[in-house]
Amino acid sequence: MTTYDASIEQCVIGALCIGPAAMKKVIQYLRPEDFTIPACEALYKYMFEGFINNRELDVNLLPQAIADQVKNPNDYVRECMMLAPTTNNVFLHSKVIHEAAQDRKLKAELFDLIESEEKDSLATKAMQKCQDYLLDNVGGTKTMLEMMNEACDKLSEPLGLRIDTGFPRLDGILKGMWGGNLILVGARPSCGKSAYGLDLAEYAASKGHKTLLFSMEMLYDELIERMICRQARIPLDHIIDRTMDDEEIYRYTVACAKLSGLPLVVEDNPNLTVQQIRAKARMISEVELIIVDYIGLLKSSERYSNRNLELGAISRDLKNLAAELKIPIVALAQLNRQKNANEEPQLSDLRDSGELEQNASKVIFLWNVDEEQGIKGCKVAKNRRGKVGKVQMKFEGEFMKFTERAEDTDWTLKKDTAELFEDDEY
Fold first, then answer.
1. Where is pLDDT greater, at 146 or 422?
2. In this structure, are residues 355 and 372 in contact, taking their beta carbons and an 8 Å threshold?
3. Whether pLDDT at 125 is above 80
4. Which of 269, 270, 198 is nearest to 227 (CA)?
5. Alpha helices per DSSP H over 117-245
6. Pair 214, 291: CB distance under 8 Å
């Protein structure tokens, strides 16, 4: 661990005395309370308040700010200026001071928790403190010049973390799932949400993206059966009933060998919070995609007066986690019970919370177009980085797998099919 050298605080004060214009950048990060040396804190506070009040810095008046703190205020200011002959490193040094202050604050808060909180709430509150610390250290303000320079530099850089769905026509609309995105996949029950989530997980893993799948509806055994069924193209009934023939048993073992090499990690805990997801994601190195099946089963570590507020908080936490880890997070979601599975969904149909729509970067819907033929509609209803639009999918129920249709047919559901469909229970 690198030892913090408090003399860097004097360097920053000295640099600002030499070049007061540097305050424009330093003030973005540094606050008076970040200093550990009282004299430096008093000097910077004087500069800080002067800058905020549009008062030009007069170095000759600066010693007055520490007249009651050091024996020779003028000598102290001169000493600071001698430690920093230029302003070249003032911004870097100011960030070091601020980060050290944030570390001290976090340690103090965690120590207070250890000393005072009940053990049942200790882990949750400690995790929340760590989350707040991480969020406070993400991002910052930038000038237009800085942003435009970065935009030009990006033209010669790799694209960064983009994960596609594996469905070419859909990817042409969606334009990828990017780091920091919260992507919602909404549908009524029995429309294939979980199978679609497995499609996304398997495709991403097959492209080398380490994927973390949180399943709160299905246990490991059910997931394994579905994954082998999909990979080997063996009817799920044959696997469940153990009625496979020799050819299917061979395909079963080949599928097991192939799937075992995928960078896919599964958690089947039915009682998860976002804080637990965060902890698991940080325990597993190099995770690039998280899929949650499904967001309606997530629990909040805080109490809320209604489910709408709770789901809103959960979706914000997931969005913050995506930004913190710089990876996309896909969360499956239920639609309102009033919405028939044969009707094309709208954003207002997301169950329990309008904040789900607000917090999502992208929203994808699934619904039945022709249930008898297994034709599903797949619509990008919200897309902050791309287009909106829809394509048709073929859902092979016996293999629990989606394939994309080369072209779309009539979007109107057949009347007899619609009459046969009965709305599922939640």
1. 146
2. no
3. no
4. 198
5. 119-136, 144-154, 168-174, 193-206, 220-232, 236-241
6. yes
